[in-house]
């Protein structure tokens, strides 16, 4: 029996249905291909043989075959017959239906928005949230209200899907001054945040099945976005110098992309050292791979000036820089941006025009005004000092409440710290208990993709400190944490 007979059962037609027979054959065959009951390269039955097997007219099968060929599932090889295409998207499971990527989805997809119920403030220790009490609402509201009042009929039409011109200009200026990146405004693309940026890049530059280096431990949405797009993340370990580039070169030299957080590795907080940066750039230029630099909180460094971005060293134009206003302004804004290499500008314009209506114009215009009136740089300066103080308050409170039972390794920056407790209970369980008590601590070991045996340094609680308003509050939260972890 050859391969074509094994799927004939799945082709049983339902003559009572109103769906035409050729459509039924098309759908069942497509699903058999997607589920890999028919493998790429397999020869399928000739239209005549299948028609006779199913008891339908030959033209009925031919109509189905024509559609499958037109969509690229089948390839007609003349005398050699018709075969399943060798270029298929990754397989999907039967239960998932034909168009989903169930094979890749995980039980607790972290790509879901971290939305809270309406009217609820972020819980204590929430990661990645800027100090919401320190946001300059007055200036912001004034600028936003002015923009609303100024809305003309022209402003009510579609905006540029690549981003609002003055905002792209303001971002380019800011990046030059603050992150050492020299780019033209045309290289800046405004997006709905980091995930949207990554999805845009992946969809524009990668093919399903392409391998991508990701940091391990890492930021779970990065893997989720890649997997959802049908790419294959390759977990590359991180040590005290950042991503182990040599490991990637050894184990997945042909990866098409690497996603890194060079300023503050998420979640360990270490910086990618200069030798590793150069090694990564060298690998990318040798293999024509892309690097996505996720610079989500590069501004928040408490000892010394912020490190220049990896993009600033990018002599061969392989780095795609991804920034976000979620940390520097607030996450509800849902705005981020990409800086793409010069050679990708046209491709990205085309992709943006194809897929998107762009981000809301009024919001973009308000951010542009906020930046050009220097409120942005002032806000960053103020919050950098504030976070250094709030971090010190949390460190002091942890020491006072837990004494010898906690170790905190401070890194040079970031918006959370890692508290490592001496406890026989695993960090996932500790995090679960804390969350049940309304404290949004996250486990470090939960951020690892590879389920290797974790040692002590892979365990700990990730605690956001940016919204801890006073030393008293820090003490109260740590006392609550102690009760929960007992
Ligand atoms: C590692 C990392 N990258 C990017 C972001 C920003 O994501 P977004 O722009 O989707 O809010 C975050 C936010 O928490 C993050 O932790």
From TrEMBL:
The keyword Transcription applies. Residues 86-123 are annotated as: Disordered. CDD domains: AAT_like, WHTH_GntR. Gene3D superfamilies: Type I PLP-dependent aspartate aminotransferase-like (Major domain) (3.40.640.10), Winged helix-like DNA-binding domain superfamily/Winged helix DNA-binding domain (1.10.10.10). PROSITE patterns: HTH_GNTR. Signal peptide: none annotated. Residues 19-87 form the HTH gntR-type domain. GO terms for molecular function: DNA binding; DNA-binding transcription factor activity; pyridoxal phosphate binding. The keyword ATP-binding does not apply. Keywords: DNA-binding, Pyridoxal phosphate, Transcription, Transcription regulation. It holds the Pfam family GntR. In the C-terminal section; belongs to the class-I pyridoxal-phosphate-dependent aminotransferase family. This is DNA-binding protein. The lineage of its organism: Bacteria, Pseudomonadati, Pseudomonadota, Betaproteobacteria, Burkholderiales.
């Amino acid at each position: 029996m050859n391969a074509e007979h094994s799927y004939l059962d799945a082709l049983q037609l339902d003559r009572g249905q109103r769906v035409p027979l050729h459509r039924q054959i098309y759908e069942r065959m497509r699903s058999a291909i997607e589920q890999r009951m028919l493998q790429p390269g397999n020869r399928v039955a000739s239209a005549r043989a299948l028609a006779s097997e199913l008891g339908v007219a030959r033209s009925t099968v031919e109509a189905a075959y024509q559609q499958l060929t037109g969509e690229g599932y089948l390839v007609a090889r003349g005398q050699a017959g018709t075969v399943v295409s060798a270029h298929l998207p990754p397989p999907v499971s039967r239960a998932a239906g034909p168009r989903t990527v169930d094979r890749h989805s995980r039980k607790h997809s972290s790509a879901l928005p971290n939305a809270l119920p309406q009217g609820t403030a972020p819980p204590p220790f929430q990661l990645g949230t800027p100090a919401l009490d320190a946001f300059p609402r007055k200036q912001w509201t004034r600028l936003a209200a002015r923009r609303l009042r100024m809305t003309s009929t022209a402003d009510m039409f579609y905006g540029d899907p690549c981003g609002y011109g003055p905002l792209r200009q303001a971002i380019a200026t800011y990046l030059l001054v603050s992150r050492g990146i020299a780019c033209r405004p045309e290289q800046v693309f405004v997006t709905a945040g980091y995930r949207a940026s990554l999805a845009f890049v992946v969809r524009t530059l990668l093919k399903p099945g392409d391998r991508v280096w990701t940091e391990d431990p890492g930021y779970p949405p990065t893997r989720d976005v890649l997997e959802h797009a049908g790419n294959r993340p390759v977990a590359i370990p991180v040590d005290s110098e950042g991503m182990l580039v040599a490991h990637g070169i050894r184990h997945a030299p042909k990866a098409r992309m690497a996603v890194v957080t060079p300023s503050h590795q998420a979640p360990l907080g270490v910086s990618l050292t200069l030798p590793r940066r150069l090694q990564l750039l060298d690998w990318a230029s040798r293999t024509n791979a892309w690097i996505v630099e996720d610079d989500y909180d590069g501004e928040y460094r408490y000892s010394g000036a912020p490190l220049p971005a990896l993009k600033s060293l990018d002599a061969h134009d392989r780095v795609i820089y991804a920034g976000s206003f979620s940390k520097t302004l607030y996450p509800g804004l849902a705005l981020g941006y990409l800086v793409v290499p010069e050679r990708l500008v046209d491709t990205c314009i085309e992709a943006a025009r194809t897929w998107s209506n762009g981000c809301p114009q009024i919001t973009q215009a308000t951010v542009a005004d906020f930046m050009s009136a220097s409120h942005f740089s002032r806000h960053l300066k103020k919050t950098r000092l504030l976070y250094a103080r709030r971090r010190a308050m949390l460190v002091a409170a942890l020491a006072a409440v837990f004494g010898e039972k906690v170790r905190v390794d401070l890194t040079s920056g970031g918006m959370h710290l890692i508290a490592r407790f001496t406890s026989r209970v695993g960090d996932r369980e500790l995090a679960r208990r804390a969350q049940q008590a309304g404290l949004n601590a996250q486990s470090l070991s939960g951020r690892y993709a590879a389920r290797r045996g974790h040692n002590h340094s892979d365990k700990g609680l990730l605690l956001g400190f940016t919204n801890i308003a006073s030393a008293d509050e820090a003490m109260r939260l740590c006392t609550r944490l102690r009760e929960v972890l007992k």
